[in-house]
Amino acid sequence: MSLSKKPYRGTRDFFPDLMRLRNFIFQKMSLVSEQFCYEPYDGPLLEDIELYLAKSGEELINEQIYSFQDRGERTVVIRPEMTPTVARMVAQIHREVAKPIRWYAIPNLMRYEKPQRGRLREFWQYNADIFGAGIYGQVEILQLAVSIMLAFGANKDQFEILVNDRKFVDIVFSNVLKLNDEKKNLLYKLLDKKSKIPDEKYQNELATILQDKESINIFHQYTNLSSFSEVTNFIESLPPENHHLELLTLFKKIESLKLSEFIKYDPTIVRGLDYYTGLVFEIFDKHPENRRAIAGGGAYANLLQIFDEQPLEGVGFGMGEVPLTDFLTTHNLKPDFSKPKADYLIAYLDDSAEELAFYITDQLRLHNSRVELFFEPTKPKKVFNYAEKKDFEFLIMIGEEDQKNDLLRIKKLSTREETIKKTKDFLEGLI
Ligand code: HAM
């Protein structure tokens, strides 16, 4: 039986064209992170299962993790997300370092999912998290998320950030609807899947969780909230002990920083992960044919406590390169990576020019250019054919005559424009 050449289901082989795209995406994400002074970090691929049992949530644990017993009979997990790892790392050092702590990473993660558009089993996920910055951290994380989308050329008509706040939802569920933990949990789950199930099913499930009309009405009032001002009015209509002032302050800051053209309130955003305690958000593609989440995140106040540490609020988000690529493709924002890019192609037409060709190649590389040398003496036609397969900016073809006259012909391939220079002048002109 011959072996399959295909990679494991839901994973990809990154051939150079896909790698060029991946590098482009990672470079943009890193650049914007560095502009916000986030520092890169990384963690191990494997973690103890306990790390996720503590607070990651049922779906991730029961349905999505890859786990195995190691030789010491410990249950080990291939990381399905980065937040527990970053919390574990911050728990080791937060006492000694200046706060806020701003970190980013682009790890590969694995989740046992049904591979489909936007979702694979192995994917890379950009993570940015800030610790110890309170509400300013929340604002900055939203700013960072917007800046990353803008850096890819996206505009406000193409994406939106939908926000909600778990504390606010909790106030509505516990203090207004007076639900017990079990019912609250069911209602959270129902909200989380509202957009994915038929309305009839949603209404039926709602009626089994909230049995009286009055509660259903209040719940509908909540799910009809669609703007910061409506939420503000709703909160202000509650008794003062239920006023969630931090959320109102966040709305004001979002508005004053002109982020509100990108950020909308959405009562159905609650997020599936258990550790979120305040702000929760998802970035959505606005295109009707690609209406899905590109990123998700939120604030988690208590994650460090699982390591017996003092609370230190973290807030952050994860953005997968798979849904981001779909977004860029949908909106025509993905540069063409079909051909490798280089600065120079150097070729020579006879043996006598070989040494000079090697020398020029070497000099250009020393000056940080990306240079390919066409091996063996060749004919111009062959060189031109080859040059078309790649994206070279310049071609230098060295012939016998030019070599004798100490001349170089530097052809800009996009315009076919040719500059003729003395070899020495050309090399001296390199910066
Ligand atoms: P999450 O919502 O599970 O959050 O994932 C965040 C993003 O990762 C998704 O919006 C999507 O872009 C990408 N993603 C998730 N699953 C897949 C998949 N199977 N294939 C491709 N992309 C995927 C978290 O993971 C949180 N730990 C994020 C976070 C960081 N919260 C605070 N800091």
Structure overview:
The chain is an alpha+beta fold and about 425 residues long. Helix content is about 40%, strand content about 20%. It has helices at about 15-35, 50-55, 60-65, 85-95, 135-150, 165-175, 180-195, 200-210, 215-225, 230-235, 245-255, 320-330, 355-365, 380-390, 400-405, 425-430, and strands spanning about 40, 45-50, 65-70, 75-80, 100-105, 110, 120-130, 160-165, 265, 280-285, 295-300, 315-320, 340-350, 370-375, 390-400, 405-410, 415-420. Strands 1, 5, 6, 7, 8, 9, 10, 11 and 12 form a nine-stranded mixed β-sheet that branches. The protein is elongated. The mean pLDDT is about 95. It binds histidyl-adenosine monophosphate. The site of histidyl-adenosine monophosphate has 25 residues, from strand 7, strand 11, strand 12 and helix 12.
Could you write a compact summary of the structure shown?
The chain has 431 residues and is α+β, with helices and mostly antiparallel strands. It has helices at 16-35, 50-55, 58-64, 83-93, 134-151, 166-176, 181-193, 199-209, 213-223, 228-236, 245-256, 321-330, 354-366, 380-389, 400-404, 423-428; strands spanning 39-40, 46-48, 66-69, 75-78, 101-105, 108-110, 122-131, 159-165, 263-265, 279-285, 293-300, 314-320, 341-348, 371-373, 391-398, 407-412, 417-422.
